[in-house]
Structure formats: C-alpha cells, structure tokens
C-alpha cells in the first residue's frame, strides 16, 4: 500500500532528525546567573554596566557567618578564626579577606605608618580592652561583630563573575577547613554560592519532574485507553517534540535556567493536548465500528483544524512572553512556544503514520451494566440545562468576588524569592539580616560638580548629610564612601582615636589628608571607592532585604530628600546597583501581562469571527476562560501571593492553555451546526462528543502541573499550583457555563430575528429532561 511506504518514510525521517537532535540536546548546560534577570535595554542597566566597569561589581563577595560557643572574644575561638582567615587568603579566586582578626587601625606618625590590630587573638590579657574598643569603633559592629558579641563575619572578595565549578571547589575547601577547625555553627551567603546551589537544585528537579510527569501520563493513558499503543504513541510524540525543542535551544546558544527548566515538564503536560484529542476521537470512531483508515481520516479532518487553532493560541500565549525585558522569561516564552508548534507537527505527521502502520486497536469494552461516557455526559447535560439560571448567577457572583479580591494583589519581589523561608539557603540569608547588616547591596554613584572634587570639604559635607539620612532614616546598617575614607584617615593622623573619626573642620586640615589620599589613589581598595582624579566615587553599603515595594517608596523618599538638601553645584548623585535593577523587574509586570493576555484574546476573537462571523460568539468563547483567570487572581489576593517575576507569567500561560478546550468545543459545535439546525441538539451533541476529551485532557493537565508542587522553588511551586487551579476552574466553566451561554445567546444567522434560541422549556427540551 502506498500509504504504508509513505508512513515508513515519515517515521524514518523523524527518527533520523530526533537522533541528531538528541545528541545536541544532551550538550545543554545549566545556568543561573542573577544578572540575566536584569531588564534588558533598560537605561539603568546600561548606566550600571558603565558604573561597575569603573568600580567593580557590588555582589562579587561571599560572607561567612560563624557563631561562637560563648563570647567571640574567647582566645580559643579567635585563634581558630585567625587560622581560617590565613587559610582563606591562600585560596584561588579569593582576592581579599576581611576578617575580625585581620582588621587593623592605621596610625600615621611623622616617621611612618603603624597598623594596630583591633584584636590580639594570642594575647588574652588584651582581649577585654580590644572588645571595648571594637564596640566603640564605628563600622565594626553589625559588619564583622554581632550586637550580642556571639557571632563574627568574614567577608571574601572573589574574582568577578565566579563560575559554578570554581565556586563549588572553593566552598568545598572552605567547609572542609571550618570542619577541621571545629567551627560547626556556620552560615554562608553570596551570589556565587546561591547561583551554584540553584543550578544543583534545577538539575535535581528536572529529573524529578520528568520522571513524575512520565509516570503520571503512563497511568492516566493506561486508564483511558487500556492498550499499550495508547500509552506508547502519545509519549513518543511528546518526547520527540521535547528533544527537538532542547536541540533548538542548544543551536541558538541558550542554557537551561530557572525558567526553561520547566520546559520539558510543561511540554509533557501541554503537548499532550493535541495527541489526546486525536486519540480520543480515533477511539470513539473505532468504538462506533468505523473502519480503521476511515476512522483516521475522520479524526484528522475533525480534530486537525481545531488542534491547529489551539496550538496557535497556546504558542501565542508563550510567544507573548518574548516581549519581556527579562532574558530568562523571554527565552522561556520563545522556546516553549516553539515546542508547542513542534508537537503539533509531530502529532499530525508521526502519530498518524504510526496509527496507519499499527493494527486496528482492540478496545476495552465496559460491561453491559457499566455506564459509558455518553451516558454520563448526557445525564450531566440534563442537570446543566435544568440549573442554567443558577449557573449564570453563580458565575456572576464569582466574577464580582474575584474583582474585589484582585485589588488586594501587590507587586513585590525579594532576593531569593524563589526559595521558601525554611530553605537552608534562605535561612542563612536571614541569619545575616538578623546578626549583621544584611545582604541587600546599596549603591549610589557620586559625581562632583564641574570644577569640584569629592575631596572638597563642602562636597564631603554634602555626602555626609546623605550618609546621616541613610543611617538614621533609610535603614542602611553599614556603608562606606569617600567620607568614611577621609574620616578614617583623619583618625589615623590623630593617633587612631575614635573621637577623630570625623571630617576635618578646616580646609587646611583637609589638605593634609588629601595629599596623602592622592598618594594612595592607585591602591585597589581605594580605586573601588573613588576614581583617581577624585571626580567620581561610590557610596556602597548593606541593609536588610525590605522587598521591591517598600524599596520603591524608600528610594522615592531618598531622592526627594536629596533634591531638597543636596546642592547640585557641589554634588550630583544617582542610585544604581543590582538591587535597584532587580526591583525594577516588577515595574513592567502588569504591562507585560496585559500585553500577553490581550494578544491571546485578540487571537481568540479572530478565531471566533472566522468560524461564526459573529462578535457575539467571540464574547461567548472568551467569557468561560476569563472567569478562571479572574478567580486565580482572587486566590492570589486572598492568600497574599505577590505579583512578581515568577507569578506574572502565570496568567498569560494559563489563558493560552485553558482556551484550548473551548476552541475544540466551539469548533466541534460549528461542524455540528452545519448539519443540525437546532441549537439545542447541536449543543447537546457537542457536549456529549467533545466532553470526554475535554475532561480527560484537562485532568492530565491539572495532574501534570500539580507535580510542580514538589519543587523547592516558590516560583515553580506557584506556577504549578495556580495554573492547575486555573485549569480546574476552566473545566467547570467549559462543562457548566459554556453550554448555557451557547443555549441562551448563540443566534444562527437565519434565526437572528426570532430572539433568543432558548426561552422556556420547549417540547424538545422536555423530552431531553425526562430521566
């Protein structure tokens, strides 16, 4: 048969491409770089890139927090800290170590510079005096010593953009040394450490989710079809589509990150839609006794167009994310949308080829006493019709309640927001906020006005006024700037006494200090704060992670303060840094979400207009899918789930997926109305014939997304939870609300003058309602 030869060619061609793609897909790398979440094309990002090119990154550091058995001023404990500090200085990729035992107070005399250690670990008799001096010295407590005197912190400056492998090696060495020194109560924080842990988690979760999705689908497919091919064929089609999509990612130089790690699991779930509609329709025809080839032709004819439309709407939902300025979200939308289209291609090429080559399936027949899907759906349809007005009232009530609760949603994001509060990494994060200054970086660019330098006394006083506000009002727990450098130098010139940790009172006194500063201008630690010409510099610090919503208010108040109290003829400032850029991610969330939703709705409207030439039908198609979206917004508002990067994409994705079943329903309805003039009979027939595929397909989708609830990442958890709930609400809307809307408001062109199709119980309706 020519059909079979062609099918063999199709399968051979697909297998060859899949083998080639599988090799390239296996070469994909995992990546989690916080910088990739900065909004691309943003002027503030361009400014920060130039800024850190001059002063360096604000997050190339690792913090070690170590708890003492008692007081941190115990000689034995300090000796261990000093040993650890010396060990850290010798490690690769560590540029600088600042430790409690390496801190020194420089004293400048006429005949030289003396550096007096703040601590004398090996001279116990001095430790009492040392501790008193430390708690009197600005900048040491909350930075290297906790307020309660029971914990110390060591700051490690690392090489820029430390990669995972060297970061892992470094931390293995550090943990081994701390264990050898019996420093058991330790905590670690830092960009390189968090990124490395995130990559490890992504690898683990990818394997877990893939396995869970496969097991789930095998069980559901077996229960649905009770045949080996009903399990094997869908898995082969979707697995091949995933391999093709991952290979495309590799060809375009993409990596698997916190967003694209969801792609395989999402495709196992979402990609199954077309396959399930095809197989369900095929099985139905076989059950009716239709010959195999004719059953395949009918299936492809009736399901093909609807599947094409649903693939378009689903992929558009993902493609709309490409407009996001956040790289990982844009890539996720691009490659997942591409995967949806690849699944459609394979579902209508590879799947029919395998169906043709396989023998006609022997279906599992229910017992005579059992109830078929048609019986169940027919009974359900009667109940829907009987309670049609109640369904409309309940739906309207849900809309009103949802709108009220949506207003409670806030846009807010935090550092490490994708980790739950009880995660060990997050617990270390909280540790540094509780014991020390915090880990949220603060960056302000300082620029002296033309003809001025940052070393001018007037400019220094302007900067000091800003520092006072940041310390007393803004909440910055630790900071350093040209002012702190000058104050420290002033103290050094005056015997190291803390009373002199202040700005000089006269220009003459300042000139003595600035002449020394100019000699030190080329030192790396000073270059990280002030440019060699003294024209620009930075004010940097640490603070608790207050969240983007509060930070936005705080920054607005800070800018207002500086506009009122800072003289631009002396000093010009601008906020910058990684924290500011991460906060800005939330500013465009609503816009991007509405753009994606609007695009999806437009596509659905065009589809409805193309099928029915009716705006009324377009509205009927959209309503059952907007209500679940409103309800999921209500869930977020009710339970205080913030709108952030990871949750903002849920609405667009959920709408694009949920609309699939509606399109299958109305497409089937359109085909039926071509042969059946009675709207009631057309809706009833469509309900009974499309309902099975809708319920099974949605059930698979819900279960598949709920596997994401086992994720340790909050973003992944909420993606699974909220999209799963949306689909549950969507099933209810498809089964209960959509038929009622069609019965009440759909008007065939030839019946437009006759009012609504369904007013009261007609004789036909009465017969349908008879048990």
Automatic annotation (TrEMBL):
Compartments (UniProt record): Cell membrane
Record has Ribonucleoprotein as a keyword: no
Keyword Cell membrane: yes
InterPro entries: MMPL_dom, Mycobact_MmpL, SSD
Superkingdom, taxonomy of origin: Bacteria
Topology class, membrane: Multi-pass membrane protein
Keywords, comma-separated and alphabetical: Cell membrane, Membrane, Signal, Transmembrane, Transmembrane helix
Signal peptide limits: 1-25
Membrane-spanning intervals of the chain: 206-225, 232-252, 258-283, 304-326, 332-358, 390-411, 593-612, 619-641, 647-666, 694-713, 719-746
Chain ranges of the SSD domain: 235-357
Protein name: MMPL family transporter
Pfam short name (any one): MMPL
């Amino acid at each position: 048969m020519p059909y079979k030869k062609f099918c063999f060619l199709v399968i051979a061609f697909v297998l060859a491409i899949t083998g080639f793609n599988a090799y390239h897909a296996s070469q994909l790398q995992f990546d989690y770089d916080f910088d990739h979440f900065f909004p691309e094309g943003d002027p503030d990002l361009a400014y920060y890139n130039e800024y850190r090119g001059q002063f360096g990154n604000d997050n190339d550091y690792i913090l070690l927090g170590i708890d003492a058995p008692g007081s941190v001023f115990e000689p034995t404990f300090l000796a261990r800290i000093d040993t650890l500090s010396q060990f850290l200085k010798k490690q690769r990729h560590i540029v600088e170590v600042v430790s409690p035992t390496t801190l020194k107070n420089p004293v400048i005399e006429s005949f030289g510079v003396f550096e007096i250690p703040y601590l004398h670990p090996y001279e116990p008799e001095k430790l009492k005096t040392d501790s008193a001096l430390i708690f009197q010295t600005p900048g040491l407590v909350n930075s290297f010593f906790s307020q309660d005197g029971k914990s110390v912190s060591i700051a490690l400056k690392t090489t820029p953009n430390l990669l995972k492998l060297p970061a892992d090696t470094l931390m293995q060495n550090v943990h081994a040394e701390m264990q050898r020194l019996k420093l058991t109560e330790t905590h670690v924080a830092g960009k390189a450490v968090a990124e490395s842990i995130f990559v490890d988690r992504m690898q683990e979760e990818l394997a877990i989710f893939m396995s869970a999705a496969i097991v789930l689908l095998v069980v559901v497919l077996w229960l649905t079809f009770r045949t080996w091919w009903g399990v094997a064929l869908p898995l082969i089609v979707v697995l091949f589509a995933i391999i093709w999509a991952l290979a495309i990612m590799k060809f375009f130089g993409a990596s698997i990150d916190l967003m694209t790690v969801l792609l395989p699991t999402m495709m196992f779930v979402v990609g199954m839609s077309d396959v399930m509609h095809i197989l369900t329709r095929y099985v139905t025809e076989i059950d009716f006794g239709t010959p195999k080839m004719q059953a395949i032709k009918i299936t492809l004819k009736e399901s093909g167009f609807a599947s094409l439309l649903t693939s378009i709407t689903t992929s558009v939902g993902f493609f709309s994310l490409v407009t996001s300025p956040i790289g990982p979200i844009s890539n996720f939308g691009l490659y997942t949308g591409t995967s949806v289209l690849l699944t459609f291609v394979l579902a209508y090429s590879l799947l029919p080829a395998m169906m043709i080559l396989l023998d006609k399936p022997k279906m599992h027949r229910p017992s005579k006493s059992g109830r078929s899907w048609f019986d169940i759906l027919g009974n359900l349809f009667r109940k829907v019709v009987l309670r049609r007005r109640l369904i409309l009232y309940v739906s309207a009530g849900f809309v009103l309640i949802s709108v009220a609760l949506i207003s409670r949603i806030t846009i807010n994001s935090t550092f490490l927001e994708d980790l739950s509060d009880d995660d060990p990494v997050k617990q270390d994060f909280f540790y540094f906020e509780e014991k020390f200054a915090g880990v949220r970086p603060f960056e302000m660019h300082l620029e002296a006005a033309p003809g001025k330098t940052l070393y001018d006394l007037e400019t220094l006083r302007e900067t000091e006024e800003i520092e006072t506000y940041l310390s007393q009002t803004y909440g910055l727990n630790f900071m350093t700037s040209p002012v702190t450098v000058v104050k420290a130098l002033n103290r050094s010139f005056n015997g190291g006494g803390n009373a002199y940790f202040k700005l000089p009172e006269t220009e003459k006194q300042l000139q003595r200090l600035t002449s020394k500063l100019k000699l030190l201008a080329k030192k790396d630690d000073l270059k990280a704060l002030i440019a060699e010409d003294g024209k620009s510099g930075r004010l940097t610090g640490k603070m608790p992670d207050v969240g983007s919503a509060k930070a936005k208010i705080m920054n607005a108040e800070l800018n207002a303060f500086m506009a009122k109290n800072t003289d631009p003829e002396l000093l010009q400032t601008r906020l910058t840094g990684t924290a500011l850029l991460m906060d800005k991610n939330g500013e465009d969330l609503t816009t991007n979400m509405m753009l994606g939703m609007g695009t999806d709705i437009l596509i659905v409207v065009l589809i409805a207009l193309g099928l029915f030439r009716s705006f009324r039908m377009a509205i009927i198609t959209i309503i059952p899918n907007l209500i679940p979206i409103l309800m999921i917004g209500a869930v977020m508002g009710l339970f205080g789930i913030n709108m952030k990067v990871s949750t903002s994409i849920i609405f667009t994705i959920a709408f694009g997926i949920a609309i699939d079943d509606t399109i299958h329903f109305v497409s089937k309805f359109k085909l039926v109305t071509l042969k059946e003039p009675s709207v009631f009979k057309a809706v009833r027939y469509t309900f009974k014939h499309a309902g099975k595929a809708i319920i099974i397909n949605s059930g698979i989708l819900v279960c598949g997304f709920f596997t994401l609830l086992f994720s340790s990442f909050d973003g992944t958890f909420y993606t699974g939870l909220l999209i799963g709930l949306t689909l549950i609400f969507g099933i209810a809307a498809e089964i209960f609300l959509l038929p009622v809307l069609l019965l009440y408001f759909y008007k065939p062109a030839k019946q437009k003058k006759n009012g609504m199709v369904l007013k009261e119980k007609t004789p036909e309706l009465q017969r349908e309602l008879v048990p």
